[in-house]
Amino acid sequence: MERKNVWNTYDLKTQKACDTFAEEYIRFLNEGKTERECIDRIVNDAEAEGYIELSEAVREGKKLAAGDKVYSVWMNKSIVLFEIGTEPFEHGLNILGAHIDSPRLDVKQNPLYEDSSIAYLDTHYYGGIKKYHYVAQPLALHGVVVKKDGSTVVLSIGEDEDDPVFFVSDILIHLAQQQLEKTGAKVVEGEDLDLIIGSSPVVIDADKKKEDGQDEKKDAVKEAILKILKRDYGIEEADFESAELEIVPAGKAREAGFDRSMILAYGQDDRVCAYPSMRAIFEAKKIKRTSCCLLVDKEEIGSVGATGMRSHFFENALAEVMNLAGCYSELALRRTLANSCMLSSDVSAAYDPLYASFFEKKNAAFMGSGLVFNKFTGSRGKSGSNDANAEFIAHLRGIFDDASVCTQTAELGKVDIGGGGTIAYILALYGMNVIDSGVAVLNMHAPYEATSKADLYEAFRAYKAFLENADFRNQ
Q1: Most buried of the four, 142, 196, 230, 467, by CB within 10 Å?
Q2: Which pLDDT band, with edges at 50, 70 and 90, does 215 fall under?
């Protein structure tokens, strides 16, 4: 089947709306380079839209009815938003699910050391990366340091023009013969991805340029860095034990191409799906089935942990919402989940003509051809996959055709080459209908990923139409 180029379907009004949506998305990317930063932004936007915190509603014993909006944050890294519909909960929810974590480098708990008058932070990479992508480029440090007294120091260093940046070194090409003989997986080792954070044995101070004798001490550079951390942020070395510090590419999301039709930015897997999901629940009208937007952590490492999709925080939040709506029972909760519909919104690999041999072109996703549906993910023999049923897909086809949304179907590369997973299979454990849907991405998992503005806008339009019109039940 021939795919449409979305841009050919847009009139000037729609193109302007697409550009405006992309501008707002770029601001979201720049404000949210970590899960915690995304949650802060999402909560602010949700409260501006009239959402109230679920825990507050529980404390007050608020009775929820159609039109009410609540949200629940879990450990500052995952969030679920509900807008109560007019139909009974047991008819099911319409759920948009995406993740807000992205591949990066994490700072270890005992990270600070000095070697040959250079101070480093030791790191451990997070998620699937090509390790050589992270050397010899400017990097920023984001995260929190929680001190013993419970106070939190929030760090974001390397994004403003006046900020210093950090970097990981690489061997110069003149000495790189042995390095270049290694495979891509080994050309840079994980233990070599240590962040360079300083080289001066003195604290730079306008009033006192040098402290006598400091440069003669052992680990004088490390000591100078500790003094800066203490002076500027109130951080001691031991505070790294209770810190969550992430190293990400420094710099802002940018428009790409002479025609400005694309977005180049860090973290678009999967914030390019999370943002339109959030906007869709804010802007959907005449909600019949209760709508839900679920934005989670830890997908890049298997959806594990208390903030990943495998935890029960979503199920617990839904139980609380149903209780406030006066309809909770264990059986009602199970029926609600089983009758729900979900778009597991995660990115797809965009077809790259320069690497055509890795794709089966008829079943590849193309940039600029609209929202991508993956009937199944997994690897090779569909291992680890959610495989959506034909009846649910037919229901969705009708919704998106009626809304004039451009869509396409795809697989992640050739059958025997690789594959990947999403959170879809985890929600499918409840027996609900789930399918993967998202935006095609070039350079996926690289420091800078590329997407089409048109695909972003079609995702928003599709997600909104889904929340307003999906009504497919198993019972």
Answers
A1: 467
A2: very low
